[in-house]
Amino acid sequence: IAAQVFDKQWYQRRVAITAGGQFLRIGLVSTESQSEREDLTRLLRFESDKEDSGVLISLDQYLDRAPDDQRHIYYLSAPSREIALASPYYENLAGHGYEVLFSYNKEDDVVLFKIETYKDKRLTSAEAANVKAKEKDGRNEEGEEPKLDKQSGSVLSSWMRNTLGKDTVKEVKLSDKHHSHPAVVVVENLTTLRRYLAMTPPEQKEASYKYLLHDNVTLELNPQHPIIRKLADMKDSHPEVAELIAAQVFDNALINADLVHDPRKMIPRLNKILESTLDSVEVSSSSKFQNE
To answer: What pTM was estimated for this model as a whole?
Structure first.
């Protein structure tokens, strides 16, 4: 009976938070009173990577267990918990031990951006977090992937920018962040940019994405990822395939940042990559049979 009462109370609280959420967001965005905004912010609830799925916590609970010297409250907006946990932006923060709040409502991006601070701590999207991997002495730890050296990385970065086109990406460089993906994109004012693109009329979306992204997007390559390390060699040995892979790496990074207008445009390229992969497997298999 006690468990049933608890479950019922938990369900009623969750429904109340969900039902009133839209009014709460409107109040937070529209109020000009800092004290009123702080009172409303206190009512916000989010999932956390430190809690089980479905468990909601407040910003006060987040701050209670954060280190005293932590200056940011980190959050990530995503369609689901599964997608949030697989995000390179989340991985970078989790790898440094930071707790990350998850929001599954796109409107929260704007709301949290508007709030800016809570109890002198800045609300910071994981996508904008400037948390870098610690400097090492150049040696790889046991089990760690080898790293592309700076010179090879610089050559690859220049090649990728030329391959993708200067009208597509602002800059390509090696990343100093900790994550398991081949690359990420870094965009200034990402929340504002996404909001603007979402409000763009359908007939203007394609042109708007192309025009706005090339001036704002930096592609950061993970020097430890096998795809990036192999791409550094492949650009010379198999340039046509390398160009396809470079474009797909960039689009995958844009998808992780929710900056792809129509993913169907990738299908012809993906088919070419699959065809190339099958051709190489076929050649390897034929060589094996001939040797036998």
So the answer is: 0.83
What distance in Å separates the CA atoms of residue 24 and residue 34, rounded to the nearest whole number?
A: 15
The Cα diameter of the chain in Å comes to: 79
User: What residues contact residue 181 under an 8 Å CB cut-off, 6+ apart?
Assistant: 88, 91, 222, 225, 252, 253, 256
Burial tier of 257 (Cβ tally within 10 Å: 0-12, 13-18, 19+): buried
SS3 23: helix
Question: Please, which residues have CB within 8 angstroms of residue 50's CB and are 6 or more apart in sequence?
Answer: 65, 99
91 token code pair: 């991985």
46-87 confidence digits (pLDDT tens): 999 999 999 999 999 999 999 999 999 999 999 999 999 999
Beta strands in the chain (DSSP E): 47-48, 72-77, 101-103, 117-118, 121-125, 171-174, 183-187, 217-221
